[in-house]
Amino acid sequence: MAKKKGKKSPTARRIDVTQYGIDLPAMIAEIRKDLDGMTHAEVGARAGMPAGAVSNYLNGSAKPSLGAVAALADAAGGHVTVRYDRPRKPPKGQ
Length: 94
Known about the structure:
The protein is mostly helical.
């Protein structure tokens, strides 16, 4: 069955994570330090992405998703940690 053409779902757009304090380019800069000596093809094979995508992410010509950054971190032998901090409850009486 062919896909219907029409409006994209509201979740189809990429959310700008910088508004939440996540600096993906800084993460990529840190990951690059641990990829020395590896070709883009080798990194891509480990990360499950094409060598061209690896090149574009590492040289800054493409914006990676958080998932792509996590895959690159894994390829470098590291990991990305994302956590949820619960909201602080206001003190009683306020």
